[in-house]
Amino acid sequence: METRARYALIGLFMLAVIAASFGFVYWLENKGGFSQQETYQIKFQGSVSGLLIGSAVLFNGIRVGEVTGLGLNADAPQEVIATISVARGTPINTDTEVNIETQGLTGGAAVALRGGSETAPLEASDDGAPPTLLAAPQAGQDWTQSARDAFQRVDEVLAENSEALNNAITNIDTFTDALARNSGKVDGILAGLERMTGGGTSQAEIPIYDLATATALPAVPEEAPSWQLIVPEPTTLMGFNTDKILLQPSEGESVPVANGKWADNLPILVQAKVIESFEQAGYAKSVSRTSSAIEGDYQLLLDIRRFQISTASEPAMAEIDFVAKLVDKDGKIFDATTFQGRAPVNGDDAQAYVNAVDEIFGKLVGELVTWATQTLHDAPPPPAPEPTETEPG
């Protein structure tokens, strides 16, 4: 009895295994996907590097099947025909886009399906072959092939323009040689531009210097003279019409002092100091600037010829040269003279330059005031204004 019982148990176990196997096959056929799959073919117009049997098929990024076959088209060797099996109901239409994309940087390739319209379903052919999708010509081209093609195009462009590129490189080499030979001049130009635009040292850090007035003046007149003297702004070359303190390293060359400047443009500053010197000599009521409210009897015209520090010799010398002319109301010059002077510079900084300029400028302006007042004192008195006629009442 015990032996029969064991055989019965073994028989029941085998029957259960057979029933489970049939159940698994049934589930596989009806639920696992075999009966739910649809087959399509895809024609690629070139290489499909990385695509293998078993590679995934994605529709809008979702896996819907796999590649079940790969082969060449005997009628068109450049074509590759891939057979895919996808879940039934996948909306593959005549305008569905086909591509091959890599799964990650080092992963395998996968067939990527995208989009398509809802009203153009893909139908099977008349000969019973699976429905066929046509991939774009570049669909099988991976990024390495794209890079190779791009480099190939670059190489072609370089080959076609080799002569022009050689000429450009030669011109660049010539230009850099010219820059190297003239590096000192380039540095000077850049430094000048920096000073013109207010770059480099800030304006607040640059010392500002004023000119001195006359150091020796004539005796103060006992009474104010009858003449009125107008001192217009002096004329000068454009190079001196600046607030820069100028150095002259050689004849015809001017370089501004980097760490100092005048309080105003030189002609305006000279005009102010000449008038101030006349006022200190006691002629405050007889001398003024050009003004429409004041009608002068005479004008003192100044023309600045030189106003700089010559550093070409040792020691450096401050040099000032200007011409003074006395002009009457009729515009006639009745006297003129030239004032020139030089003074040595004791040092090589801005303060030393200004000290030397002040020494010679103060001396020359004193001589100017003495000459002008004596000349005007000896000149005939200006004609008295004619009385205006009044109509009889």
Description:
The protein is 32% helix and 27% strand. The chain starts with a helix and ends in a 15-residue tail after the last helix. With 393 residues, the chain is α/β, with parallel strands linked by helices. It has 6 helices and 16 strands. Strand 14 (298-310) and strand 15 form a beta hairpin. Strands 8, 9, 10, 11, 12, 13, 14, 15 and 16 form a 9-stranded mixed beta sheet that branches. A 7-stranded mixed beta sheet has the order 5-6-2-3-4-1-7, with no helix packed on it. The protein has 2 domains: 35-143; 191-378, Rossmann fold, CATH 3.40.50. Helix 5 (266-280) packs across helix 6 (350-378). The longest helix has 29 residues, at 2-30. It has helices at residues 2-30, 143-160, 162-181, 183-196, 266-280, 350-378, and strands spanning 37-44, 56-59, 62-73, 76-87, 97-102, 109-114, 132-134, 208-209, 229-230, 235-236, 244-248, 255-262, 287-288, 298-310, 317-327, 333-344.
Any chance you could write out the topology, listing elements then pairs?
Blueprint: H1 2-30, E1 37-44, E2 56-59, E3 62-73, E4 76-87, E5 97-102, E6 109-114, E7 132-134, H2 143-160, H3 162-181, H4 183-196, E8 208-209, E9 229-230, E10 235-236, E11 244-248, E12 255-262, H5 266-280, E13 287-288, E14 298-310, E15 317-327, E16 333-344, H6 350-378
Parallel strand pairs: 1-7, 2-6, 8-12, 9-13, 9-14, 10-14, 11-14
Antiparallel strand pairs: 1-4, 2-3, 3-4, 5-6, 11-12, 14-15, 15-16
Helix pairs in contact: 5-6
